[in-house]
Amino acid sequence: MKAPDDCLARNEWICGAYLSTRRQVLSDAVLQHLELTSLAVLIALVLALPLAVLARRWRLAAGPVLALTTVLYTIPSLAMFSLLLPVYGLSAALVVAGLVLYSLTLLVRNILAGLKAVPEETREAARGMGYGPVRLLLTVELPLALPAAMAGLRIAAVSAVSLVTVGAIVGFGGLGNLIYSGMNTYFKAQVLTASVLCVLIAVAADLLLLGVQWLLTPWTRAARS
Amino acid sequence: MNTLGEAWDWLADSAHWSGSEGIGQRLLEHFLLTLVCLLISCLIALPVALVLGHLGRGGALAVNISNIGRAVPTFAVLVLLLLTPLGRYGEGPTVVALVLFAVPPLLTNAYVGMREVDRGVVQAARGMGMTGGQLLRRVEAPLALPMILAGVRLAAVQLVATATIAALAGGGGLGRIITAGFNLASTPQVVAGAFLVAVFALLVEGLFALAERLGPGRARQGRP
């Protein structure tokens, strides 16, 4: 039997045969990539909201919360995953935990900035109308902080999509796994395809969140037009 | 706790500090990579940003390039470069990748800093008969300095992180201690390497913070 002379055999960068023969592998990697990213960003959001509200309400907490998140953000991703190794072992939880810590930084900073930007007059007006602290937070402060929070969420999501690839070091890197194995076998089509898919996921996540923001903040559109 | 103790023992072992793959050598590699690439990136990004900011042109590009940089995975770029002919030149792919990821924060911050200079001050300088070049050197650049320095700090931290990931793609630096630890399935070595990288990154960030605080008064309050 003659060896096939296609783009796979010639190890070309762009290869249609790769796409058709490895469809299953690619879709599994994309799925893992999406799972790890969305899980991490969601957990970070659930943690960041109370932290930011706490830092806003209780001024003394703001300094330490910001300092801690800055320190976390400064630690390079490979080191972050490695420092969590004794806690989580070689698992998907390790990658998710590392990503949560990064997303937490971006989200807390942005939500806090959004809460701080709520004008004092607005708060006074709501209090004058008899709003209690909880109702003030839920119906006035948080909605007004939404644009800043969403900006942070978009940055966190896009960064998380790109950082998941480093999870390949523990075997849970989504498309990063394909890039890692493609590097070791010098498989150009696999590395390029996985990289391009990664960027596409990041752009898609950004656009999706932009759409969510558009739907959640109708008042900003009314003001502009 | 046990792993932390073992990691500490690993760090305390003097045999791990010397030699061509020792901590000392890796530390030096990491430092040189970061420093050289920071200089190259500044030489590329700052003149472009200062001139664009002075002319008020190309703003969309200068601002959006940071967002694009965030969406492209560092690891993917390193591996892609490794598989190009550039991969044959030792640290070549690492240097190119490091510069590519350090340029966006430098460019964006310097450009925004230049554009945020008080227009009234710029017009007053023009009214005094300053030429474009004088305006750029004596008025705009000094006033934009805090933002430019904030960009340099961001770029430096980014460089330390990228240099670490370079170890995954065969580059040198402290990341190699981590990847070697993974290959040996030695958790103490992985944790010890990660600790060194984290301390290195925090030191770089801390040094810049200190420099900003000790620097001339007008270089302060430049956080974006």
TrEMBL record, chain A:
Signal peptide: none annotated. The chain crosses the membrane at residues 36-54, 61-81, 87-108, 155-179, 191-216. Its main location: membrane. It is found in: Cell membrane; Membrane. Residues 30-209 form the ABC transmembrane type-1 domain. SUPFAM superfamilies: MetI-like. Belongs to the binding-protein-dependent transport system permease family. This is ABC transporter permease. It comes from Streptomyces physcomitrii.
UniProtKB/TrEMBL annotation, chain B:
The chain crosses the membrane at residues 31-55, 67-86, 92-112, 143-170, 190-211. It is found in: Cell membrane; Membrane. PROSITE patterns: ABC_TM1. InterPro entries: ABC_transp_perm/SBD, MetI-like, MetI-like_sf. Residues 27-208 form the ABC transmembrane type-1 domain. Keywords: Membrane, Transmembrane, Transmembrane helix, Transport. It is a multi-pass membrane protein. The keyword Membrane applies. The keyword Transport applies. Belongs to the binding-protein-dependent transport system permease family. PANTHER family: GLYCINE BETAINE/L-PROLINE TRANSPORT SYSTEM PERMEASE PROTEIN PROW (PTHR30177), POSSIBLE OSMOPROTECTANT (GLYCINE BETAINE_CARNITINE_CHOLINE_L-PROLINE) TRANSPORT INTEGRAL MEMBRANE PROTEIN ABC TRANSPORTER PROZ (PTHR30177:SF33). This is ABC transporter permease.
